[in-house]
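Section: Multi-chain targets

For targets with more than one molecule, the full set of components is provided together so that the structure can be written out for the assembly as a whole rather than chain by chain. Components appear in the order listed by the source. The example entry contains two components.
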Amino acid sequence: MPEITILKRPREEAVITQRMFFKKTARGKVMKVLRERYLRDDISCGVNACRACNAAAQTVLPRSGDTTHKLFPTGHYILPDTNVFLAQMDLIESNHFTTPIIVLQTVMEEVRHRSLPLYSRLKALTTTDEQKVWVFYNEFRSETAIVREEDETPNDRNDRGIRKAAQWYNAHLTLAHPPIRGQPNLALPKVVLLTDDFANRQKADNESIPCISVRNYVEGMKNSDQLLDLLSATGSDELEPTRAVAGRTALYTDYLPMSTLLAGVKAGQLHQGHFNANKYNYLEGTVPVSAFTKPVLLVGRENMNRAVQGDVVAVEVFDESEWKAPTDEVIDQDATLKNDDAEDSEEEGDDLMVHEHESKALRTERTKKPPTEKQPTGRVVGIIKRNWRAYVCHIDSTSLTSNNSTSLGLQTVFATPVSRLLPRIRLRTRQAPSLVGHKILVTIDRWDITSRYPEGHFVRALGKAESKEAEQESLLLEFEVPYRPFGKAILDCLPPEGEQWVVPPKSPANPEWRDRVDLRDLIICSIDPPGNIFKTSYKSGTLILGPPGCQDIDDALHARRLTNGNIEAGVHIADVSHFVHPDTAMDNEAAARGTTVYLVDKRIDMLPALLGTNLCSLRPHVERLAFSVIWELTQDAEIVNVRFTKSVIASKAAFEYGEAQLRKDDPKLNDELTQSIRLLNSLAQKLKAKRMAAGALNLASPEVKIHLDSSESSDPVDVEQKALHETNSLVEEFMLLANTSVARQIQESFPQTAVLRRHLPPPHTNFDKLQDILQKRKGLKLDVSSSGALADSLDECVDPKEPAFNTLVRIMATRCMLSAEYFSSGSVSRDTFGHYGLASPIYTHFTSPIRRYADVLVHRQLAAAIGYSPLHPTLHAKMHVERIMDVVNRRHRMAQMASRASVEFYVGLALKGRNERETEVVEDAFVIRTFRNGLGVFVSKLGLEGLVMFKRDTQFDAENYTITVPSSGTGQPDVAISVFDKVTVRIEVEKDKNTQRGRVKMTLVSPVDSRAL
Amino acid sequence: MSSISKSEKAYIQSSLLSDPPLRADGRGLTDFRTIALESGVAPLANGSARVSIGRNAYDGGGGTEVVAAAKLEVETVGDGEGVDGGRVVCSVSCSPTAYPLLPSNALDDLQHDMTSLLHATLSHPTIRPQNLCILPGKKSWLLNLDVIIFSDAGNVFDAIFMAARAALWDTKVPRTRSVQYRTQKSDRKDATRAMDVDEATHVGSALDTRETVQVSDFELPDYWDEGEPLDGRQIWPVCLTLNLLPTSHFLDATLQEEASVPLKLLVLYSFQSDTTPLLRSMRLLGTGGSDLVQIKSLLKDSEKYARIVWTALEGKLKDEYHSLRKPSF
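Its structure, encoded as tokens over all components, is:
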């Protein structure tokens, strides 16, 4: 008979075992929540071989603790308070920080309450193998569970809980190390409470719990030199009433409390939005809010009130009489604030000088501006969410007080972020001299009202500036691209055969062949960009020529005449979903990466390379699994029917665009393959004509080709624009057709969760400025009423003397548009599904599953739609799909920006090379923007945008987008330069003397030489 | 509610009218059975109490048993039923086991009668607690007071009001803090503005209403705190049932006694410290009749009895309140 005992809790115990709290829901209801707490005695302390605890528990803490710290020779563990994790996460995460850590449940919960990103970092920390971290569930262990006392704040209660746990641990360790008879008493390791809360330390001292502040602790560590720099600026002086911060004048107004902000936003008195810094003028920023069509303008440091690019802020909008127009002047932070001193920039004289500089910069003739250009103007009254991350920076060498490279003294220096949208960051470091000329990673810790600049701390060095590795890594970090190599768990998801994997012989016994159509005999070929191109984007972007041999072919085509006179055409896409199963480590990683990122000299894969370059590459003469879309089309390219099927194909040939073009045009060739290409081509022409008739846009982006010599040296040899073949558009048309057909199918099967892609029509106001410029400068009209009208009027924007003018207008029009996005069909209304640029009512991405995660999802949904496999439950959940779409959209955007930045870097390198070879680089350029003191120009040959600055004042006519500059020769009349004018510029790559930040500098050569200005 | 025969009725009546009056359980005419009161019985409610009258001390069975629980809900004023300053909504429901003999529609009628009396008395604006208001004109608390009758062994109205009173006594309103956003024109420091814009245009305009405080939302300053007691909790009335016989009256009738009297008088008094008590409500129930002179003298008596009940209840509730003030997490 098993013995059953019922442990019934007496009612009086409810005090300790029940926790009651109120919760205010998002809809404003108040709920009373009651939770049961079961206290137990068998929660392990986590120390290896602890005699007092359950022996079976998996423990991680070494038995004698850490013995390397000066102050604790008998060994110790640290038990950090919540504020340590909130403020010093970089320190704790460092590889040099090796002390075993005890994390209390109370602390975990407090961290979660305060900051979710920090909480996930803490969670990640508790699961790494590199550091010894033990989570102790103190609230559930009967000895350490505490009850809130009357009139005790939640904070005090938690602090008491933490101290209680520290006390218990120290007592517990004596049990774990019982004295052994005949041996002298062992010196016991201690559990040290690590906290920056002065009051908590005092109380701990009274209760004789060993405790220490973070700074004091780190100073005693064996590798304190590296670690001290990681200390965040917050913490110590905030909670310790020692340093006098008072006496400094406040430069900014205080933020309103969070609850007030939310109330204000709710009541419509405040507006919430993301802060966007202006990259031309560091004293100006905008916040797009839903209440106004134009974003809210913030003018001046005080009104931007410590907002940093990307923060979610609450702004107060001024009266309409105070509204201003955005500045038309370029104000450069580095130039204006050259003489600012990092050590004590708050000193009065200095302060006044900076103030004067800035107010002079701000005092433009804003008031004279026509009222139409005025936009809502306001100020930041609070931050709803900070989006601070680690920024790639350079140390400003002039801010160093001592250049002696051996000096290890602590100095305060400025770090200038690579991104022009960010303010300078002040940080204290001992390694300043050795960091000059390096790219380093810096985190912002805080921004006080008394401090002009945010304060931060050094995270790590990336390497010498302009070295390929450092530039590459800084790019990836700057655009938050996950670039770590794939872990073992992910690689384990690949087929065990690896590179040797082949399609098994056809037999019903092989699961690969289940429900697959055998298309091995079809004349299928693939047409791709030249072999050494990493990727090509159909609509826009940059062709990047990489070293040969790393090609992935993810699509193939075929076409043949049917007996009834119609044509059968097929698109075959590598069957990635056969290898990537839902909810596996590989799938989760791919979902998090979202897309493959292409840099000029590196590709960061979304899926392991084995899939991309082999198993899912539709190489010629090799059997491969595919997902096929097969249409029956009439001669006029009307779809008669379409079917989707999983298949096995064996491509017959892989062509490059040029090859395919030659083959098509060669009248001597008449084999099946050539005929099929001709057939495809004729269909593609008709499809394109139809698309254009429907109002599809022909957009343009600067397109540049960078040749890399070889994989080793990888110095760009030259920059050139890409050539277009008819066959490019052949592939493009069929991919668009496949995507559209698939989109219809999955939307029909899964109306709530189909993964689709849309491109919203841009608001007409986006085009206001461009329309105005075209009208005034060229007398051209731009009709933006629909995509078709826009396409037509763009076709008419030609300057017979200047063929490149049309491309320029297209580029500028493209910039006025919104970006396309993925979405889940159940999340938006049916009438907003359309793709504006393609003029298609519905669209998705199906054709590149190897490099886009959305395509993987679409493959799964299509497979379920045709009854090939059941749909994974997560793809039925709207919330889940929405969440993935958000990630994928963000990653997609970041990836685009990263590759653009990478191209810019290489264009810079190429220019540098040219500057060394030639005496000077002079190129034609178009003026695309006029400022009071400069011109924005676009060098179409290099796809490069630049800024020409004039030091002397010029006459500026904002209405007509014209500036008038004095001519270079004396006696000659002044020269007027307007938008769309063609000028010649001299391009140099100049290194900022202080920060080593390379930048392209342009000066005007004609009509006037701007060096004189 | 129990059905008894005519002869039983006559027997009970005559013994009550005899001198000295005789009751089956040996009580005097104005004696109550033992009343047991326990508050905080429903942890998820904001306030609750259980009252039992005449429970058998040995096995805990029998007697009239009533549980009342108050639950607070946030309401938006002007949106549906929300009322500025909060409101109280009461309901009484009878467990079918309390009246096993009643058909379900009769039970509904009974519930409805009881609900209307309780609601009419307790939701009266004059006794509405002041702290049911969260944001004036915007948000307020709705106090739902639900009373359940588990068993009826006579004198159920007194029990209902006693339970209701104890539950309201026990009720704690979560503390809220109003959050507001005020346009702070005066303390703005704007470098460009001082130069370009004429300051005087903004100051002193009588039409400028932006300076007014506009409270728009509230927050809970302390999630772990039960809150503060309901305001003015002495004022909640007590109910007293006088069972009327032609020449006398008695209190706290058992079921049989209730069945044998033709008329009952319900009076509801609220007492505020030592001033004259306030007669909140009065009901005559039953088939018999009465006249003004009799009622006048009855009211005088009932006031005396009610004060005794009130004092006893108040004392007990205060004890209970202090012993139950439990620390929370």
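Chain B has a mean pLDDT of 82.
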